[in-house]
Design a protein that fits this description.
The complex is a heterotrimer of chains A (about 200), B (about 80) and C (about 250). With about 200 residues, chain A is mostly beta strands. Chain A has a single domain, classed as Sulfite Oxidase, Chain A, domain 2. In chain A, strands 1, 4, 5, 8, 9 and 10 form a 6-stranded mixed beta sheet that branches. A 5-stranded mixed beta sheet of chain A has the order 3-2-11-6-7. Chain A is globular and about 60 Å long. Chain B has one domain. Chain B contains 1 helix and 8 strands; from the N terminus they run E-H-E-E-E-E-E-E-E. In chain B, a hairpin with a 2-residue loop joins strand 6 and strand 7. The radius of gyration of chain B is 12 Å and the shape is globular. The N and C termini of chain B lie far apart (about 35 Å). Chain C is built from 6 helices and 11 strands. In chain C, strands 4-3-6-1-2-5 form a 6-stranded antiparallel beta sheet. Classes of the chains: A mainly beta (about 200), B mainly beta (about 80), C alpha/beta (about 250). Chains B and C meet through strand 1 and helix 1 of B and helix 1, strand 6, helix 6 and strand 11 of C. The complex binds flavin-adenine dinucleotide and zinc ion. Zinc ion binds next to loops of chain B. The site of zinc ion has 8 residues of chain B, from loops.
Chain lengths: ~200, ~80, ~250
């Protein structure tokens, strides 16, 4: 029953003709901050990243150890399920390949990422390989700000951006899939922007 | 301070429950605090609206609007008390 | 009225802009005529929904500034820099335009005339809007409830409803106090700082009066003032709050 509101355009939305904007998305120049809770402030001294394999065995990195790992820089487009796409974002961090080197993955098929604020998201292990994902600590050449997930966030740019968990502090290897925060509240379990997998059932 | 509160969710809760809800009481499943829904801390710069207990931060209610449905998850509320007049 | 509330459905209605008042350089009131409007209580708000030609929609909440008056609903909007909706409402909307809204919404942050306990209202920036509906209802109904309104604004020119507020303080039992947070004009005798504990201790009745407080405005203002009232001994359930978000003030 809605009618067009005279003179209302809304926030600038450009749909580039190029093939870089997934269906239903628009390009934005800002970097909107999305949050489902208060922003945790984690000092680099207290920060830790823990990896738990399917046997429950853990290994963890301090900030010093983590930042001593090989750094990879990437330039990627990111796609938020709230419909904005930001082109050509530049990140630095440690690829999952480098992080998982030497870790016994056993029967693991899925990683459940946990964050300092209690957030979780599930990603198939296969989607974290081949240099397609990293734990990022640098954005646009600067240390990642708390609003955007700093000290470090998961970055899985080929999936909707809620999969790129901010403030990540634990990667749990699973043999059976388990939905994370938004996946259990109604969003798609996999979240491929190019197939517009927004909601559960899409 | 980007959050608002349960007052801002009044319209959405009305859609879900079919009535004004902000003055109704809810008990937090995390800490047991009892508060009107209007006092929940609400984050809406997100893929859905996330209402948390003002006392302990437990996620009380999450509402996700889909193209032809609304999914509401209220696992963080032990009970809701609806005043019947 | 509470009984009828439960039966009512919350439908989107089409309203027509029938009046525009420029309240300050950055605040404007819009009066909407809304066929099918069921009437409202002071403190309630509407949801406004705007639709662009490509189907894109934006939705925002606005408090109602006036007591119930037939099909008329007046909202007061403050401009948020680079905001999506508020600059549109200030710069583009004109009399005769149609706007889509639903309401009234709210059953907690409301006040009805009826000789209840004394009331303290504290508004920061546009947070004064729902409080103004309460104060106007108090006066137009002839109700005798003692009511004290504290308004915090950046400068004298930013005080919304300033002229009306100056006349209101002549009513019995009504007190209006202003505080300016960023400038002090010559001859100004009111407060010129952010609301703090000392100011509230001066202004607010003691908790044993049964005082009920309504605090509204930007989230930071609201949480700070509500916290100060609780620290002065006012029970949290008698300090009602409504947060407008990170805006203004
Ligand atoms: C229950 C309720 C009642 C309300 N009643 C009123 C009312 O009576 N009058 C009124 O004017 N508003 C009221 N509001 C606020 C209103 O709903 C909008 O949030 C406001 O008009 C801004 O909308 P916008 O689209 O212009 O800005 P948006 O486009 O939504 O916001 C612009 C961006 O700026 C940010 N931002 C906003 N302000 C600041 C700031 N000061 N500093 C830094 N960043 C900022 C926002 O977070 C956002 O990222 C109410 C809100 C609620 C929840
Ligand atoms: Zn709680």
């Amino acid at each position: 029953m809605s009618f067009i509101t005279r003179g209302f355009e809304g926030r600038r939305r450009s749909r580039e003709p190029s093939g870089r904007i997934p269906p239903g998305q628009y390009a934005t120049l800002d970097f909107p901050v999305l949050s489902a809770g208060p922003t945790p402030r984690i000092s680099r001294e207290e920060w830790r990243l823990t990896l738990a394999d399917t046997t429950g065995a853990e290994r963890s990195w301090s900030w010093e150890e983590f930042t001593a790992l090989p750094v990879t820089d990437i330039t990627v487009d990111i796609h938020c399920v709230t419909k904005w796409t930001k082109l050509d974002t530049t990140w630095g961090g440690v690829t999952l390949e480098d992080l998982l080197a030497g870790v016994e993955l056993g029967e693991a098929t899925v990683v459940l990422a946990h964050s300092y604020d209690g957030y979780t998201t599930n990603v198939p292990l296969a989607d974290l390989s081949g240099g397609r994902a990293m734990v990022a600590h640098t954005y646009a050449g600067e240390p990642l700000e708390p609003e955007h997930g700093g000290p470090a966030r998961l970055l899985v740019p080929h999936l909707y951006f809620w999969k790129s968990a901010k403030w990540v502090n634990r990667l749990e290897m699973l043999t059976h899939d388990r939905p994370g925060f938004w996946e259990s509240y109604g969003y798609h379990n996999y979240g491929d922007p190019w197939r517009e997998q927004r909601y559960s059932g899409d | 301070m980007r959050h608002v509160d349960g007052n801002a969710m009044g319209g959405l809760l009305w859609e879900v429950f079919g009535a004004e809800m902000t003055h109704q009481l809810g008990c937090c499943a995390g800490c047991g605090a009892v508060n009107p829904l209007a006092t929940l801390t609400v984050y809406r710069d997100a893929p859905g609206e996330v209402a948390r207990c003002p006392a302990c931060g437990t996620v009380s209610i999450v509402v996700v609007r889909m193209p032809h449905a609304i999914r509401v998850t209220i696992e963080g509320v032990r009970w809701l008390q609806i005043h019947t007049g | 009225m509470a009984g009828a509330e439960i039966q009512r459905r919350l439908n989107w209605l089409v309203a027509v802009v029938v009046g525009v008042v420029e309240e300050t350089p950055s605040v404007r009131s819009l009066t909407l005529s809304c066929p099918g409007w069921p009437g409202h209580r002071p403190g309630q708000h509407i949801d406004l929904r705007l639709t662009a030609p490509d189907g894109y929609q934006a939705q925002r909440s606005y408090s109602i500034a006036t007591p119930s008056e037939g099909e008329l609903v007046t909202i007061t909007v403050e401009r948020i820099f680079e905001g999506e909706v508020s600059p549109f409402l200030l710069d583009v909307v004109a009399p005769g335009d149609r706007l889509e809204l639903r309401g009234p919404i709210g059953g907690y942050f409301v006040w009805d005339p009826g000789e209840g306990p004394p009331v303290f209202l504290a508004g920061g920036g546009s947070g004064v809007v729902p409080l103004m509906a309460m104060l106007r209802a108090r006066i137009s109904s002839g109700d005798g409830t003692p009511m004290h309104l504290l308004v915090s604004a950046r400068s004298r020119d930013d005080i919304v409803y300033r002229e009306e507020l100056e006349t209101l303080s002549h009513h019995d039992g009504v007190v209006v106090t202003l505080t300016l947070t960023r400038s002090r004009p010559e001859g100004w005798t009111g407060y010129d700082r952010r609301v703090d504990g000392a100011m509230l201790r001066d202004l607010v009745m003691s908790p044993d009066s049964g005082l009920v407080s309504y605090v509204c405005g930007p989230t930071g203002f609201t949480e700070s003032v509500a916290g100060l009232l609780v620290a002065l001994g006012h029970p949290p359930h008698r300090v009602l709050t409504e947060r407008f978000g990170p805006t203004g003030g």
